[in-house]
Amino acid sequence: MSISRQNLSVIIVSFKSDYIIHKCINSIDKEIEIIVIDNSNNIEFKKAIENKYSNVRCILSAKNIGMGAGNNIGIRNTNKDFTLILNPDVILEKDAINQIINASKILDSFSVIAPMLGKIGNPNYKLDNKKNQKFDPIKPFKVVSVDGYSMLLNLKRLKQLLNFEFFDENFFLYLENDDFCKRLQLYNENIYVVPKSKIYHLGGQAVDPKYKKEIELVRNWHWMWSKFYYNNKHYGYLSATKKTLKNFLSAIIKFFFYMIILKSYKSKIYKMRLSGLINSMMGKKSFLRPKLDN
User: Which of 28, 71, 118, 292 has a 20 to 30 Å separation from 257 between CA atoms?
Assistant: First the structure.
């Protein structure tokens, strides 16, 4: 089954994203259903965005549940066969949806399709050289994983996989997409990138800049928590410990260094990294949430 605008929805998980999300929504075709999951639980945001856009439905989460859990709510609330997961700081090029639709018509089977970044930078995908996966500037090409800020899911196909769950809600931030793609590999499912479908990811701008310092602290905590949790889940505790040992030692050294030279905020960043890693090693949940003033 190929993709059409009638059987496609878009899911955007937002958190204090009022200032940026309109650029994302305005880059999406108006006939496509958009479901916004707002982790800010902001009723005024919900009213404003639903009044402004006829194709947008906003669901308020009771609390800040993170990206993966927010995506799962969106998946449960769409009846479409395909859904495009987007971060609020992603902007689609004008022809991005058309190129994905065209690609779906020539692919035999797929579980995930992703567009490609429209500017030079870190690629939003990973290749598996052992499987001879190679970049193609024209045709869709197979990859081992794609970044979670823009990935289209074949819901009809995924729901038919035995015991397959969508996003692991233990992740709050980071690596929930890697975990998702890693589990798809176990089912020998296909993940593609469509090079003619282009997007722009503003990167780190999904949350209002006035909260930048608090968000940066929380991101550092969750990056280390997620890194250990991901490796422990897929490769075991010993392997996870080995893979995060350098991070642990680096965080200790930099924490004390910045504390000595009186760079208190930088010191806090590495304190957060240590805390996230230690809590993950102890088997504690990813409990930390940003403390923001309204």
Answer: 292
